[in-house]
Structure formats: C-alpha cells, structure tokens
Task: inverse folding
C-alpha cells in the first residue's frame, strides 16, 4: 500500500540541501587531502572532517550556523542522506550508517588477523584431510580469526557509543544525544554518564581480552584435525 505523496520541497529546503552537500563533500575532500599529506589514511581525515562539522566543533563555534546547516528536521536529514522519509520512522535506519562508520576500524583489525595466518597452508592441509570449501572456512579459517573478529566487534561498539551527529539528525535519543542534552542543564549528570561509559568500555575491553585468551588456547593443528 503506497503512502500519501509528499508535498513539493520549498526553495529554502532545496537551498539548504545543496549547501549541505557542498559543505560535507568539501570538508571530506579537504580532510582526506590533509590526512594524506601528513602520512595518514584518507578516511581518517574524512572522519575528522565529519566530527568538525558536528556539534562538538561547529556547534560550539557557531551554533546558529550549525542549526541552519543541519536543522533538526527528519525530512531535511533524509534529503542529505538519500533516504525516503518512510524509512526514518525506526532506529534501524541508523544501522547502515554505523556499518559504514566502523568499516575503517574493523577492516584494520580483520586485515591484521588475516595477514597473521598462512591461509595457503591452512587451506591445503584442510583439503588434504577431506574438508570442503565451506568446512575449511567455518572450521579452520574462522576459528583462527576469533581474536580479530572480537577486536573488530569491540571497535564497532566503541564507534557506536560515541556517534552523535547521525542520531541527532534523525532525532533519536541515543546515549551520546542524551548525554549532550543532560550536559546543558546538569553538568554533574553528564560527567557521571561519561564516566559510566568509560567504565563500560574498559569492562568490555577486559572481557574481550579474557575471551580471546581462552579461545586462543587451541593450536592450528588441532583445528585442522577436527575438520
């Protein structure tokens, strides 16, 4: 069943939309260029440019400019992010953007884990024991990537815990948004929430380290033999 057609956009909304595109793309390009000039990956500069356009920098330097450029309007946010307004009614709309944000961090963790393995030797040994491609991946390769996968999951959680701009644009009251709202009226409450978040992150890191040590006790030969 189709929804009612959307009313046409006014000139101001279109003008703000084009300004958003120019500012976001220009800042991302500039941040990537500067990052490459100093020997860092381009994606780091692009992420820092996004942070600079958020309330932590632009919102503090010029609140009126931030509110004009990124108004708290779901339809305006949908124009910028290329989403249909019907998709903006559920928090699940944030998931694809969180996935993109965490790509740069999870890739490094998984890439390090893969490079630490001798995939050719593991594959040949598993196939010589009669394992097919699916069993080789699920019983040999993935068990040896458990540490990298746990590290990638930890980095993803930390990225999501600290993300503010997207959830604020979509008007969802996530933890960073709630902390920012509390900080405007109760500084001590915001500090307490920040401390709880840091403690949770440390506990999560300790848990990942303990699980990694327990899961990493087996040897590759045992894994191959079990296949």
Result:
């Amino acid at each position: 069943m189709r929804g009612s057609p959307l009313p046409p956009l006014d000139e101001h909304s279109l003008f703000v939309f084009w300004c958003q595109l120019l500012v976001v793309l220009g800042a991302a390009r500039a941040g990537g260029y500067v990052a490459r000039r100093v020997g860092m990956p381009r994606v780091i500069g692009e992420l820092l440019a996004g942070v600079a356009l958020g309330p932590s920098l632009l919102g503090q330097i010029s609140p009126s400019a931030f509110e004009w450029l990124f108004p708290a309007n779901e339809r305006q946010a949908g124009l910028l992010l290329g989403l249909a307004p019907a998709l903006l009614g559920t928090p699940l709309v944030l998931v694809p953007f969180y996935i993109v944000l965490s790509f740069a961090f999870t890739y490094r963790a998984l890439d390090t884990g893969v490079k630490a393995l001798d995939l050719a030797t593991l594959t040949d040994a598993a196939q010589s024991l009669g394992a097919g491609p699916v069993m080789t991946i699920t019983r040999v390769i993935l068990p040896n990537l458990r540490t990298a996968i746990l590290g990638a999951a930890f980095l993803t959680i930390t990225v999501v815990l600290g993300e503010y701009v997207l959830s604020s644009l979509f008007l969802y009251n996530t933890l960073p948004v709630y902390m920012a709202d509390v900080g405007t009226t109760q500084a001590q409450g915001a500090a307490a929430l920040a401390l709880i978040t840091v403690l949770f992150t440390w506990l999560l890191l300790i848990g990942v380290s303990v699980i990694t040590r327990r899961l990493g006790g087996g040897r590759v030969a045992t894994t191959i033999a079990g296949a």
